[in-house]
Amino acid sequence: MDIKKIIEKKQQTLPLNEEEINYVINNYLNNNISDEEMTLFLKVICKYDMNDDETFLLTKAMLNTGYRLDLSQISNNIVDKHSTGGIGDNTTLIILPIMAALGIKMAKMSGRGLGFTGGTADKVESIPGFKVNLTEAEFLNQLKDFGIVLATTNKSLAPADKKIYALRDVTNTVSSIPLIVSSIMSKKLATNSNKIVFDVKVGRGALIKDFNSGLLLASKLVKISKRFGKEAQALITNMDYPLGNKIGNSLEITEALDILSLKKINNLSSVAFILASLLVSLSKEIDYQIAYKMVRECVESGQAYHKFLEFVKYQGGQIDLLKRASFVLEYRAEMNGYLNDIDALKVGEVVRELGAGRKQPTDSIDHTVGLEIVGKLGDHYQQGDVLCYVHTQNQSFDLSVLKSIFLLEQEKKDINPLIYGLVED
Q: How far apart (Å, rounded) are the C-alpha atoms in residues 271 and 424?
């Protein structure tokens, strides 16, 4: 078998079979196929696409390069949640304690961020002492004894994905739907939870920019999950605007606490409660409305908040030692008007420049920096009102870079919905 012939076959728009896909994945992982050859293969997939069978086989091949966690010794009813990523997207840390408080086991493997902001692992590492580099035994024991666990992705789970993703990141082959699906699903299936809810982000601040592509991705994630025997649903949500008011690692920890203690209700809390309710509905096999009521009662009673504090302590964290940036600067409105737009992409870029995100995987990040947006879309501001606080180590940070993020206008405009839809099959 030959990589060049496989590429030529795909260029003729012919579907690849299991043997051919396995050959490419295994030989690339074992360094028998060069980066240059693999780049050609990835670019051909981007151009000519893959059908559902090919995507399933690609996912299976990547999954089989590592091993799967055996969670069956703990339970056959373990949930997981995956977001395709966005700005101010901190739903995981709100959902985890809700699951624990409701007696639902949730196993979460999270990566570190590359790009605008840190991943969930970066966010919890802003809590001094919080341990995310767990051994498999530690991961399983905590899941069994405490009910929820959050750890960095184990290198032995779907190792082909890590190598292929690193190549995709530098070869402009990130946005292919089959490649996105196989990357997400190989890791999810290796973690081996039984029931999965996906949050597919669509808009400026997301990998997927348009609704139709988001719908296609959501549909394929659910289909592939079910072909592997998992129950799954996918929520499609708006990422034209930041989800939360706080963007930056330690800032997002404080916002999760604000939401769990009902000090704040915003778009982040809305999406988090919906995702949590979908997980409860799947896990307990109950109607969504009943599940949503359970989630709200869990938060309103304080159970979820206290469970979050227990969770942090269980993994070694000291929440009271959370650090803050050296300076907090104020960006003020230059005119009267309604806030009609907050550009999520530009927010992400500014936060990365502040030091909260990475440009290279080896970059270190500053957990304390970020932006804190005051108010919400549609609010009216007077000239001189604070639009945003900048948490920074640089007292002379140029506030003018924020001008293109916020759009104030005399007339209030309609805002696109937060939730675009739910895919169940």
A: 17
| Contacts of residue 74, Cβ cutoff 8 Å, sequence gap at least 6 | 105, 140, 143, 144
69 three-state secondary structure: coil
pTM of this prediction? 0.95
CB 179 within 8 A of CB 54: no
End-to-end CA distance of the chain: 36
Per-residue pLDDT reduced to its tens digit, 195-233: 999 999 999 999 899 999 999 999 999 999 999 999 999
Residue with tokens 């979908």: 278
Catalytic option among 82, 123, 367, 391: 82
Beta strands in 326-365 (DSSP E): 327-332, 337-342
Count CB neighbours of 146 within 10 A: 15
Q: Residue 406 forms beta bridges with which residues?
A: 342
* Ranges of residues in the chain whose predicted pLDDT is under 50: none
Residue 338 identity (one-letter amino acid): Y
Q: Known catalytic residue: 425?
A: no
Please name which of 107, 152, 98, 100 lies closest in space to residue 130, comparing C-alpha atoms: 152
Distances, alpha carbon 371 to alpha carbons 217, 410, 418, in Å: 30, 25, 21
Query: What's the rounded Cα separation, in Å, for the pair 352 and 122?
Result: 13
Distance between CA 419 and CA 187 in Å, rounded? 26
Pairing of strands 327-332, 386-392: antiparallel
Q: Choose the catalytic residue: 187, 195, 307, 358.
A: 187
Q: Which is the catalytic residue, given 161, 258, 343, 366?
A: 161
Q: What are the pLDDT digits (tens) for 18-27?
A: 999 999 999 9
